[in-house]
Amino acid sequence: MSTLRNKVQLIGNLGNDPEIVNLESGKKLAKFSIATNENYKNNNGERITDTQWHNVVAWGKTAELVENYVAKGKEIAIEGKLTSRSYETKQGEKRYITEIVCDELLLLSK
């Protein structure tokens, strides 16, 4: 059960082409966001689609897969862990980010 403590699995579509960063250390980083949709009926019986956006990062070989095969609109399945970090803007404001670090990627679109 310890592997379930921080595990995220999502299927969704990319909102934009991934951003690929080649770091000085030689590592590759891919940043992208995916949208997941949940459908339900409200109290009036109307069908509602709730879209949630998720920020995702991938490193190394997974980032290379993203760079070569993933583009805006593609449906993918990801597995990873949820992480949070903070940074300070040039104006001195503290900002917080929650994102998914992708360990595995499955291409679902043709």
TrEMBL record:
GO terms for molecular function: single-stranded DNA binding. The keyword Protein transport does not apply. Pfam families: SSB (PF00436). PROSITE patterns: SSB. Keywords: DNA-binding. One of its GO terms (biological process) is DNA replication. GO terms for cellular component: nucleoid. It comes from the Bacteria. NCBIfam families: ssb. Homotetramer. This is Single-stranded DNA-binding protein.
